[in-house]
Amino acid sequence: MIFLELGQRPEEPGPPISGSASYEPDVATRLGKDAARIVARYPQARSALLPLLHLVQSEDGCLTPAGIAFCANQLGLTDAEVAAVATFYSMYRRTPTGDYLVGVCTNTLCAVMGGDEILDALQDHLGVHAGQTTDDGRVTLEHIECNAACDYAPVVMVNWEFFDNQTPVSARELVDELRAGRSVTPTRGAPLCTFRETARTLAGLSDPGAVADSVATGEATLAGLRVARANGMSAPDPDTPNDAATQPDPQLTEAADSTRDEPAPAPEAAAPPPVNGSAP
């Protein structure tokens, strides 16, 4: 029997935002120039709040009272309004973050495929719990919710770039490479950079040449599309009237009716093998 504990882990509370209350004048001036570029992209200034939060996170490595106040002043909002938005989204960090934010997905499918085992292995290997940073400041470990990469489970993300089909061994090797300062390449997506550089990219201020021009779609993602094409399946014609598009297929209806009252199949006799030789 496998027991899966879902939901937020108790060792990952959401701490209050803390740190410096204001920026030094030279820092505020530099950030102000970046903020002006960001705000100018939006018809209403307050629409720039999310990228501005990434901007101050690129400065501090997390949200601070100084960053909250800076965003509020730039947009004519109160600190409370900015903090309410900032604390809603998990990509805005409330504690200092290392160069590499290593997130292990432990949501349903990744958990079934070994995500919890990977997280436990990294906590033991790095000597930190989820939500903490290694002593050298290189790696912050966290447990994350689904990142829509279930076809590559279990998934580890580093600064929100994908490392697919991981194992405890490969995940340990990955963090060792990061801590040693060696280059690692995500399975797909943009080249890996530091957490603060990533935050600047999310603010819309990165060098366009540093971001991948295109991202190849993986084989696992395309499998369903190929099956659909092989069987002549397609989405409804958008020009088809709604009532016609939603009419049930007579063959599917007949098949469903014929099995409606049948009992559910019994469990299979062969159980999956235990993990690491543990008792089922």
UniProtKB/TrEMBL annotation:
Top-level taxon of the source organism: Bacteria
Needed cofactors: [2Fe-2S] cluster
Keyword Iron: yes
Skewed-composition ranges (Pro residues): 264-280
Region (Disordered): 1-23, 231-280
One Pfam family matching this protein: 2Fe-2S_thioredx
UniProt keyword annotations, A-Z: 2Fe-2S, Iron, Iron-sulfur, Metal-binding, NAD, Quinone, Translocase
Family from the record: Belongs to the complex I 24 kDa subunit family.
Role noted for this protein: NDH-1 shuttles electrons from NADH, via FMN and iron-sulfur (Fe-S) centers, to quinones in the respiratory chain. The immediate electron acceptor for the enzyme in this species is believed to be menaquinone. Couples the redox reaction to proton translocation (for every two electrons transferred, four hydrogen ions are translocated across the cytoplasmic membrane), and thus conserves the redox energy in a proton gradient.
This protein's name: NADH-quinone oxidoreductase subunit E
